[in-house]
Design goal:
- The structure is a single chain.
- The chain is mainly alpha-helical.
- It has one domain.
- Helix 1 packs parallel to helix 5 and helix 2 packs antiparallel against helix 7.
- The longest helix has 28 residues.
- It starts with a helix and ends with a helix.
- The mean pLDDT is 88.
């Protein structure tokens, strides 16, 4: 029951992230939205590239699960969708979410150079965890640690911008 509930939350969470910027147009909320994105990515770095919701479902399902072992398995989503649909759902939602994120970043009128470095790190990080270009070996752990600090620095900068705009 808990894993199914996590699946429903995960299923609803993605579309909400996509439509939220079109419903709420406020500079402070835009910055919080961007911080939320970087915060989620920051959480990924602590669980070896796992989606936090999926990782929680895996731990509930198997207490001995090791983070990062199977990042493409979504047990919570399998409770509410057929596996083939999951393979389409996440790439589509991720693409639309990144589109919404870019719109919000441009809308804030914060200089893009504050976002180029962290977004590049997140992009390379995903290449690592999905083993698209890089093999998930020893260099991954070093890169993951650097990514943590880049994301933390970015979140701190964005927090400072909110404080200064208040």
């Amino acid at each position: 029951m808990i894993i199914t509930t996590l699946g429903i939350i995960h299923f609803i969470h993605s579309p909400l992230l996509i439509i939220f910027p079109f419903i709420v147009e406020n500079n402070t909320m835009d910055i919080i939205y961007i911080m939320y994105f970087f915060g989620i990515m920051f959480l990924y770095t602590f669980i070896d590239g796992e989606c936090p919701i999926s990782y929680l479902a895996k731990i509930i399902d198997d207490r001995n699960y090791t983070a990062g072992k199977d990042i493409t398995h979504y047990p919570e989503m399998e409770r509410i969708l057929n596996v083939p649909y999951i393979d389409y759902y996440f790439p589509i939602m991720t693409t639309l979410y990144l589109f919404s994120l870019v719109i919000v970043i441009l809308r804030t009128k914060i200089h893009l150079y504050w976002f180029i470095c962290p977004l590049l790190f997140v992009f390379v990080y995903f290449l690592f965890i999905r083993e698209i270009v890089f093999i998930h070996l020893t260099h991954f752990n070093i890169f993951q640690e650097i990514t943590k600090y880049v994301l933390l620095f970015t979140i701190c900068i964005l927090s400072g911008i909110i404080i200064l705009n208040s």
